Amino acid sequence: MVKKQSIEELVKIELKDCRFHADCMALKVKQLRKKNKIINSFLAISSSASIASWAIWNDLAMLWGCIIAVSQVITALKPVFHFGKHVHTLNTRCYKQEALFLDLDNLWYELKDGSIEKDAAKIRLNHLKQRISENEFFDDEDGFEFSKELQEEAAKMTSDTLQTKYNITD
Fold this sequence. Notes:
The protein is mostly helical. It has five helices and no strands.
């Protein structure tokens, strides 16, 4: 026989899941920004260096030729990787996820202090779950994947937040 979960337990489960996904998104944004910054820095340096390299072309021709070739390949491939678009898309979703988490937070405290009836809380929770699900869905073009390491770091962040703020332990 399956035990029916209380609305409080359902909100608690959704709080954990929503916080975890918000933390994953925040970490991925940070990761993508770092990659974007490295690529843009390399391109800026190699572009400036290629101009300066003409003066010493005879001494380090092979090195400068390789740097220029690599920078041209990166410049050509950069639109394929969409780092800037990915940062924008994921940052927007992360912001929405945080807002949805705050809505869950509000529902959690309303249940705790009894200022919302259970039936109204169930309706609101179902509406929030739908919005959260829509926000967490990425189409194939975005192709966001959260590595195992990123998920482990996000899980620690989530656990710390839930334990500190809500006294929720795993």
